[in-house]
Design the sequence.
């Protein structure tokens, strides 16, 4: 389990640290560092590892996710695009990104994996081993054996914004999912929350030679996943990704987006099951309804109220009874975070 | 002075009503972007509904560019004092606004000091203003010292059998109360009610005449 995350010069965070629990709920205003925490945790196990999206490299996925037009390069990871060094520290293991020397970004770790050798560099009186290089033209360079290194528990980032990147991956890998029970199981689960009865998920041609993913109804009709309601679509994709990739840590950004409260309860139950299995779940949300649901279902859950001011990331652990007292006093932590942190 | 609601329901209630008075008003009356260092005052509403709009409108006339946080606890009237313990420590001055209802003013004052004592607040009455409808206390909760200003809604001359914020509103509307000012106020059309709110905003002189205790009490937040 990841217990502590420290960030230095990562995206909008100049400096900050958060403590994590088996299930952590990040709550806070816009631009308070919630997504940044999740993205750092997504990179932390190894930015060069393969993830279940296209592009398949974790750091490259973040590049595509943040890109608005045709920008290249990875400087978006560095605070204000100008920081020389950036650090993601999970528990005692560090991931260091440095522009020294430029023009690209070299990536090192303070964790020395067994059986892995590369050149060692001493930075700020500490030894780091080289993992790879991020070129200004967006190319990624690393040895093949770097792909299998895990510096921290393996994480999977789930978000509405990543759905399009998941589709291509799932279609490519469908042969590995096809004959498992997973598609039928997910279809059955989702059927509880929609009027139709789904029996399976398939990958088949749509027009000409283009392939796509469908849910299959009990009468054999197929509906493209992308034509389903946004919540159903998102849940199916995220569950397929999880079941295929089986990460140690699930990171879900903006959990409340697209879900009816009943469906949300189902997702929270799933989180409770994951925690029971020994997995870790970290979610961000703007919804107090989500917070209340999670803390009522999952005993080992922690609410972290986040704020980001002048680059300093702060997080306050909020106890469930504190939330209750605040509610009685007419205080909503999302409106009052400046007084509570 | 602008207000910064600490709860979404209160925020929406204030914003929605202000917008009906004037579309630009929410931006001028509500403070969305605040830092802890800019706010050391809190307004606690013991009663709701019309107070949601009247109090922010009066605040808008006072204390220049200052901002006060505002809350409406789930418990009403003096019951709201119980929840103060949670938040008192963040503020140097707290204004507590409640309806008089059928209480005599000295009884109400006793009730409030008792409730404050129950949550561990030691308080000393410093002064009474506007015929006892504004009471200023200097208080301590542990080592935290703060000013506590009680503002009691109601006008004796309005012939309502229970005194509340609606006494002021019907007076401003120029209508006679038969029995209860709240009933009289509710009998007015929405247009007439918003006409009264608009007057509070547009005519400070008239507003200050009718909401004497509110102006006197809320002024104390920043002096």
Sequence:
């Amino acid at each position: 389990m990841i217990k502590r995350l420290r960030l230095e010069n990562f995206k909008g965070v100049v400096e900050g640290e958060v403590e994590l629990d088996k299930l952590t709920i990040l709550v806070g205003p816009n631009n308070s560092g919630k997504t940044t925490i999740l993205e750092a945790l997504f990179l932390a196990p190894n930015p060069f590892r393969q993830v279940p999206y296209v592009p398949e490299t974790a750091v490259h996925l973040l590049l595509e996710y943040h890109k608005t037009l045709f920008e290249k390069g990875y400087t978006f990871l560095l605070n204000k695009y100008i920081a020389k060094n950036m650090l993601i520290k999970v528990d005692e293991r560090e991931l260091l990104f440095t522009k020294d020397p430029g023009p690209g970004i070299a990536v090192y770790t303070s964790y020395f994996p067994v059986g892995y050798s590369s050149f060692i560099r001493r930075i700020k009186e500490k030894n780091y081993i080289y993992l790879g290089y991020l070129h200004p033209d967006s190319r990624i360079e690393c040895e093949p054996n770097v792909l299998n290194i895990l510096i921290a528990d393996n994480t999977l980032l789930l978000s509405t914004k990543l759905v399009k990147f998941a589709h291509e991956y799932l279609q490519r890998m469908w042969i590995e999912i096809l004959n498992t029970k997973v598609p039928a199981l997910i279809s059955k689960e989702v059927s509880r929350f929609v009027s139709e009865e789904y029996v399976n998920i398939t990958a088949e041609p749509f027009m000409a030679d283009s392939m796509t993913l469908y849910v299959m109804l009990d009468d054999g009709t197929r509906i493209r996943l992308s034509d389903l309601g946004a919540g159903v679509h998102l849940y199916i994709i995220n569950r397929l990704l999880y079941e295929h990739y089986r990460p140690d840590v699930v990171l879900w950004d903006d959990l409340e987006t697209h879900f009816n409260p009943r469906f949300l309860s189902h997702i929270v139950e799933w989180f409770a099951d994951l925690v029971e299995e020994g997995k870790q779940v970290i979610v961000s949300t703007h919804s107090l309804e989500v917070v209340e649901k999670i803390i009522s279902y999952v005993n080992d859950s922690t609410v972290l109220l986040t704020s980001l001011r002048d680059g300093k990331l702060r997080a306050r652990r909020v106890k469930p009874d504190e939330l209750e007292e605040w509610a009685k006093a007419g205080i909503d932590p999302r409106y009052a975070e400046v007084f509570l942190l | 002075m602008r207000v910064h609601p600490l709860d979404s329901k209160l925020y929406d209630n204030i914003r929605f009503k202000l917008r009906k008075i004037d579309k630009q008003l929410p931006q001028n009356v509500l403070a969305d972007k605040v830092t802890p260092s800019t706010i050391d005052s809190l307004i606690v509403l013991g009663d709701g509904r019309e107070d949601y709009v009247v109090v922010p409108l009066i605040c808008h006339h006072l204390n220049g560019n200052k901002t006060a946080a505002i809350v409406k606890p789930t418990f009403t009237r003096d019951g709201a004092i119980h929840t103060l313990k949670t938040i008192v420590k963040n503020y140097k001055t707290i204004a507590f606004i409640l309806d008089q209802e059928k209480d005599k003013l000295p009884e109400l004052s006793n009730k409030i000091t008792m409730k404050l004592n129950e949550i561990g607040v030691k308080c000393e009455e410093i002064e009474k203003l506007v015929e006892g409808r504004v009471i200023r206390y200097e208080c301590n909760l542990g080592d935290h010292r703060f000013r506590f200003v009680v503002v009691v809604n109601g006008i004796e001359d309005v012939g309502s059998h229970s005194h509340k914020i609606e006494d002021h509103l019907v007076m401003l509307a120029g209508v006679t109360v038969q029995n209860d000012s709240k009933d009289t106020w509710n009998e007015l059309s929405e247009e007439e009610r918003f006409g009264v709110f608009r007057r509070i905003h547009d005519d400070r002189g008239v507003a200050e005449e009718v909401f004497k205790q509110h102006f006197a009490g809320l002024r104390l937040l920043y002096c």
